[in-house]
Give the backbone structure.
Amino acid sequence: MTAQAPLDTGQWTGAEHIEIVERFVAHNYHPLPIVVARADGVWVEDADGKRYMDMLAAYSAVNFGHCHPELIAVAREQLERVTLTSRAFHNDQLGPMSQALAKLCGMDAILPMNTGAEGVETALKTARKWGYKIKGVPDGRAKIICCENNFHGRTTTVISFSTDPQCRDGFGPFTPGFEIIPFGDIDALRGAIDANTVAFLVEPIQGEAGIVVPPDGYLKQVRDLCRERNVLFIADEIQSGLGRTGHTFCCDHESVKPDIFILGKALGGGIMPISAIASSREILSVFHPGDHGSTFGGNPLACAVARKVIEILETDRYQSNAREQGDYLFANLRELKSDKIREIRGRGLWVGIELHAAAGTARQYCEQLMGMGMLCKDTHEQVIRLAPPLCISRTEIDWALERLTDVLA
Ligand SMILES: *Cc1c(COP(=O)(O)O)cnc(C)c1O
């Protein structure tokens, strides 16, 4: 972790970095005032040499911990072989990665992209085309059902079905063809499906909404209803998938397989952006050369890292640690006697602590925790979100619990 000369900005203080970002970067985020300069496992170090525990893990993109040695090693090796070919040619990483990912998902095939939002766009395009070419929906009439308080990314089409006014304000006109129903309400879904409905897009646990877990049995009911009505069930597992909830997929908790998985974030091991949809050969057969694509989609560097990510997931090591440490974390949080806490929600190592309005904003608590050496992020004013790297140990959980107890009890 020694800085090499060309990368070294060690002569700048954290405050100077923040000032320069304020001046030269658009203000589309409001980060905590910490400047990370290096990281290892669950720990990060700021520009001034202070250490913090990372309880956000880049919104679950760093599920296996910062600078995971095996992931760094394959990335470094691939860097020196070939990094980009575009899909105009084949490369020797895309095939093996796709085979392994399809197997992990229990699916026939995948379509690789880069960011999560692109993965979602790809799933929406797949569903519409499937609707027209296979289901027989009249041209231009396809309807896709989504949930209130969803988060699926930031592109113009994806924000078209956001219910968060800030995500949409000033960005219209929007893409038509979406209907919004309440999350976790199977009757609402039954009522919304009509002859032109091609898909239901849902997060198995709503992340950005504040780690909202649907009622038990919901995903199974969704599965059955979608099958019965010939509607594609699309599970956005970009944040919930790849170990976070204690299983490879959040859908595994109800032993459910959607028609389309959307993956991203942790698939790139926190090193490269890579996303993908995974589905059946029949559904993916709607694509023909030239229909859809991406210059960087399926690039050999990202694929090499993703191959190793999949290999790591096949051991169940991180999923089982998420189950074990997650159960311990939840049990201890539930013991916390605090009149500030309204509800504790989540699964595995994915926790939302919702505060009463009178207790102040979650942001205030995150700032306080940062002062104590622990980084987490508020979501929606009242929810403190905890999502540490899945390699976190019992001792480190205890360390975090001490600090949470200090600020909440
Ligand atoms: C993060 C996220 C996305 C968008 O991913 P980006 O890589 O930021 O485009 C989509 N869906 C869910 C559930 C997410 O958590």
Q: What stands out?
A: The chain has a mean pLDDT of 96.
